[in-house]
Structure formats: C-alpha cells, structure tokens
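Dear H.,

Thanks for agreeing to be a second pair of eyes. The structure we're designing against is below in token form, covering all 96 positions.
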C-alpha cells in the first residue's frame, strides 16, 4: 500500500484532530488593546522598527495615534490563529 508522502506523524496529527493554536495571538492582542501607547504589541511580535515609529507617532500626536495598536489588537482577536501566525509571525506584516 502506498502512503503518498504522508508520514506516520502526519496521520497521527490528523487522527487527533488537535486544533491549531497560536502562542502569540492573545498576548499580542491584549498588549495592543491595553498598553498600545507603549507599542508593546509591536515589540512582542519582533517589530522593533515599527514599535519605535509607533512610540514617536504617539508622542507627536499626543497619544491620538494609540488608536492604531488598539484597532490592531481587536483585529488580532477576530482572526483565526492560523491566519494570525501566517500574517504577523511568519509573514512579518508590520502594520494592520
């Protein structure tokens, strides 16, 4: 019988029906919503340049730009875990 490139581990993962879980989605969302003015969600995801830009924007606009990480945090929550990881962890999309 041919296995068509599937390994025993692949078959076990399919049989266990374990849903995909992102390790960074919830912490990044909470950081964006609660302390977005510090750009901690950007730094947490490894976006140092974007984090510094966010802090500068917050200073220049007297905090008005902190709406950006707040909106990002909400967007993170409504994404699937797989979509979040594909977009922000692996895809390295720095903004919205």
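And this is the sequence the design step returned. I haven't edited it by hand at all.
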């Amino acid at each position: 019988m041919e296995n068509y490139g599937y390994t025993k581990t692949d078959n076990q993962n399919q049989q266990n029906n374990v849903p995909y879980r992102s390790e960074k989605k919830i912490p990044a969302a909470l950081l964006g919503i609660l302390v977005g003015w510090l750009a901690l969600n950007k730094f947490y995801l490894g976006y140092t340049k974007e984090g510094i830009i966010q802090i500068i924007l917050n200073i220049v606009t007297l905090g008005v730009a902190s709406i950006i990480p707040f909106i990002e945090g909400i967007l993170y929550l409504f994404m699937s875990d797989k979509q979040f990881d594909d977009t922000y962890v692996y895809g390295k999309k720095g903004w919205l």
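Two observations from my side: Residues 23 and 44 are 12 Å apart (CA to CA). Residues 48-60 form the longest helix (13 residues).

Warmly,
E.
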